[in-house]
Amino acid sequence: MGDDTVQRRPFWREEWPPRIGGWLWDRRHGIADWALAIGLFPLWAVSTAGLPDGPLDTLANKVGPTGSSVEATLVWMAIMFTGATAVSVATLFRRSRPAVLLTVAAALACGFGNSFPIALALYSYASWFIHRRRSLAVWTAVMVLCVIWIYTYVPGGGGWGMAPPTIMVTILVIAFPLTAGLWVGTRRQLVANLHERAERLEREQHLLAEQAINGERTRIAREMHDIVAHRVSLMVLHAGGLEVSAAEPKTADTAGLIRTTGREALAELREILGVLRSGDDAAPTAPQPVLADLARLIGQWRTAGMPVEWETTGTPRALPPRLERTGYRMVQEALTNAGKHAPGCPVTVRLGYGDRDLEIVVANEPLPDIGPITEPPPASGYGLAGLRERIALAGGTLSAGPFPDGGWQVRAIVPIDGAADEDEDGGAAQ
């Protein structure tokens, strides 16, 4: 698919229970903020009304009703609700807009003597914004001044004296939360740095692997050019000379076939070398052989002296390019093996066009008993293995083995529908 964007589905449509755990983990910070905002609401309300009076408390006592009247109760409930609501709402923005919570905490401390929100505000800022050290130092100084203001310079500050409550509250709502926040923030920063370092090392490993692959591809291309291309070029030159100087027409025709085949092999080899040297996975731009080119391929083998029979069943039709190339390469490899291991034996090539699959069969008759072979043909052992991998990539199956009489058969069945789907998805990459 062209779009790599991951679409998130609602958690109720995911598989239970593993997916719900992942959904909750991805949103754990937001859930924690809401839990703090709701769970600490009573603490903010009670502490706003029950701690030492601040300037706004004194102003409310002077302006508003006093005593135990209903009006006084409503005024103090409004103060409690307003202060607690302000802190709870600011808690929801403690990781995105930390200045909001810090400002509300300082206002409640200086206005109503409620110093407990200072602890949450400083902890949040130190744990999430540890890199802003200057701002953290400024806000810490502001909070210390607020505590000194509450318990030193505000009249009626609880009757505790001056130094003891100031030191105790400073340790309780500033020193402990600030230390804990710095520890959590440092640990979070360390973990993030380790993750970044691991990702960087992984990228570097991929780059080193790509460089090694490109170097190996260049070396392979150089070796193929120096050895294979050189010898094939010599073969073409000798075949051309033989074609010109041959006295018999049959010898000249055979030499011409060798020269033409060698030139085609050189052209395909140059394309492969170009792909290897460029380091690009794209296929050669030249037209690749398809099933329609089997007539020319079989004609070449017949000219070389191999008796080949070609049968087609079903309704021949155009197939996906990938399947066409796979079928051609299979017949080409099977004919090469037959010519190498059973020279002169009759070979049958059969294509069966079905509704849902394509059947390709290449079979040769047994080799006549001519005694021991002094020089067996060279074989790498990778022909059938590579062919089996090619057929498997097309979604098909390959079987190869001898007949009871000594013959040999290679048979492949490739689904047409699967090949069509793959070619539509990845046709641009072929």
TrEMBL record:
Transmembrane segments: 31-51, 72-93, 99-124, 136-154, 166-185
Catalytic activities: ATP + protein L-histidine = ADP + protein N-phospho-L-histidine
Enzyme class, broadest EC rank: transferase
The Signal transduction histidine kinase subgroup 3 dimerisation and phosphoacceptor domain, residue ranges: 216-280
Domain of life: Bacteria
Listed name of the protein: histidine kinase
GO molecular function: kinase activity
EC number: 2.7.13.3
Keyword field: ATP-binding, Kinase, Membrane, Nucleotide-binding, Phosphoprotein, Transferase, Transmembrane, Transmembrane helix, Two-component regulatory system
UniProt-listed Pfam families: HisKA_3
PANTHER family registered for this protein in UniProt: NITRATE/NITRITE SENSOR PROTEIN NARX-RELATED, NITRATE_NITRITE SENSOR PROTEIN NARQ
